[in-house]
Specification:
By secondary structure, the protein is of the alpha/beta class. The protein has 10 helices and 13 strands.
């Protein structure tokens, strides 16, 4: 079965919060945040719904489709606007879609999990699916907690996936989850994100490397075949450590966390969009998309662009 990525869109709120601004109210500094994470600023504001609508509309237009062409909407979000209903039907309504719509929550692996879900839906008869990763993480951040406040940002990224019997952009997947690590990164009802950063860091490198190796083996390629690595954007040091273990040159890694921070399930589509805008997506070339997040969850996919 073949699946093509045919359109992309993004949205970030206008308001930018710099590291210097955070250091006015927190015991931190631009130097510490930049050195330890690579993050220089983040966008803050909007809602999962409003950001998702903007990104989704752009992706459908970019694919050259009408809203009525979309068969299904899958929204990945860790920060739904409401516990109930899901964010997806509200985004669908805001966009003018009339198709089925549902949420997937796999934290920072969410976009990849949503793409995997869309793949399954395309396998069973749907033809055109809109996948949106959208996050309003700032709402669930304790802005007096320097451990989390420096890391997270808001944004959305969307992709249209279309069935194509003649070939596929998506060559392989490897997904995983380990709920025994749930307390390492958590947000209780009515609470804020809390994290054991060091342990998340250690495990993140391990699962990214393992899932990437398995996805590449399943696609029949090695890391030397890759032209691009599109990783989840949590910390530049996690990306560097994973790239080194996978023998991938950092020049091949797409980095957007300096501008957006960690936007959870939006980070991979935001990074893809950035790479495409900079002419880094070339037909025929292999790329690795890889993410990890709370759960813990992880997901890697090998793609070969056709456009
Ligand atoms: N500003 C200044 N100093 C700080 C800050 C800060 N924001 N945070 C911690 N420090 C201090 C610590 O108190 C510690 O001081 P000490 O040496 O006097 O004890 C020192 O800096 C080092 O602290 P560490 O926790 O060891 O710092 P580390 O290098 O591990 O970086 C970080 C911390 C950035 C959180 C890192 O562990 C990390 O990125 N972890 C993974 C985070 C992640 O990937 N989260 C994923 C998903 S988020 C989601 O799913 C929504």
């Amino acid at each position: 079965m073949g699946v093509r990525f045919t359109g992309w869109g993004i949205a970030v709120p206008e308001r930018i919060v710099t590291n210097d601004e955070l250091s006015q109210t927190l015991d931190t500094s631009d130097e510490w945040i930049t050195e330890r994470t690579g993050i220089r600023q983040r966008h803050v504001g909007g809602s999962a719904m409003s950001l998702g609508i903007t990104a989704g509309l752009e992706a459908v237009k970019d694919a050259g489709l009408e809203l009525s062409d979309i068969d299904f909407l899958v929204v990945a979000t860790t920060t739904p606007d409401r516990l109930c209903p899901a964010t997806a039907p509200m985004i669908a309504n805001g966009m003018g879609l009339t198709c089925p719509a549902m949420d997937v929550n796999a934290a920072c692996s969410g976009f990849m999990y949503a793409v995997r879900t869309a793949y399954g839906l395309l396998e069973t008869g749907n033809k055109k699916i809109l996948v949106i990763g959208t996050e309003n993480l700032s709402r669930w951040v304790d802005w007096t907690d320097r451990n989390m406040a420096v890391l997270l940002g808001d944004g959305a990224g969307a992709a249209v996936l279309e069935y194509d019997p003649d070939g596929s952009d998506l060559l392989s997947f490897y997904l995983g989850a380990d709920g025994s690590a749930a307390d390492l990164l958590t947000c209780e009802h009515g609470g804020f994100f809390e994290m054991n950063g060091r342990e998340v860091f250690r495990r993140a490198v391990r699962v990214v490397v393992d899932s990437a190796e398995k996805a590449m083996a399943s696609a029949g390629i090695t890391s030397s075949d890759l032209s691009l690595m599109i990783p989840h954007q949590a910390n530049i040091r996690i990306i560097q450590a994973a790239a080194q273990r996978l023998d991938i040159d950092m020049d091949k890694a797409v980095i957007t966390l300096d501008r957006y921070g960690n936007t959870s399930s939006s980070s991979i589509p935001l990074a893809f969009y950035d790479a495409r805008s900079n002419g880094r997506i070339k037909p025929g070339e292999f790329a690795l998309m890889t993410g990890f997040g709370a759960g813990m969850t992880w997901a890697s996919a090998v793609v070969r662009w056709s456009r």
